[in-house]
């Protein structure tokens, strides 16, 4: 099982999003092509997924953990966080 820490949880968000830029900062290496993506940490496969529309769907499941804070999205779609 892989555990992500320091994540932002938004209750109303229909999908869980992972920033590939943040994974890069955390020393994950990325490879992919032909509708597949893979992320490695210390040369071991950590995440993999397939392209669906314009998003990669990663294999795995969501496990609830301790929530320290949450953000309620604004109705104004132009607001970025």
Summarize the structure.
7% of the residues lie in helices and 30% in strands. It is mostly beta strands. The termini are far apart.
Keywords:
mainly beta; 4-stranded antiparallel sheet; 81 residues
Q: What can you see in these coordinates?
A:
With 81 residues, the chain is mainly beta. It has one helix spanning 20-25, and strands spanning 29-33, 36-41, 44-52, 55-58. It has a four-stranded antiparallel beta sheet with strand order 1-2-3-4, with no helix packed on it. The longest helix is centred in the N-terminal third of the chain and has 6 residues, at 20-25.
Distance between the termini: 29 Å
Total helical elements? 1
The unreliable regions are none
Beta percentage is 25-35%
Q: The biggest beta sheet, please?
A: 4 strands, antiparallel
The shape is globular
Structural class: mainly beta
Computed CA radius of gyration, to the nearest angstrom? 14 Å
Mean residue pLDDT? 77
Question: How are helices and strands ordered from N to C?
Answer: HEEEE
Number of strands: 4
Roughly how much helix do the residues carry, as a percent range?
Answer: under 10%
What is the topology, as strand order, of the major beta sheet?
Answer: 1-2-3-4
